[in-house]
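Question (not urgent): is this output format expected?
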Amino acid sequence: MRKYLTLGNYTPEGLTGARSDTFAVREEATKRAVEKVGGTVHEYGFSFGEYDFVVLASFPDDQAAAAVALVAGSTGTVSVTTIPLMSAAELDQASALGDSMTFKAAGSGRG
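Got this back:
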């Protein structure tokens, strides 16, 4: 299963709700949602600064990861950015595939 990094922020309403419910309850709700689509939460942490929370999870496919992001975002209480992560081996494969192609920079002529 691929791992995904989710960076999230609470809206003012979401932060009020999370403080009322407790942040532990929000973490458990996230874990249940991820498990419902066949995923696993590896790490769930709260932060301060640019993001309010960070989740590292595995999902069986992009659709499962997107489902959780869509449902969470549709509540109006959080905004999330989910980033698929690649292993070094996968990136090496992509690099090798890239060796078989050419790409001309914009403005360098036709092609």
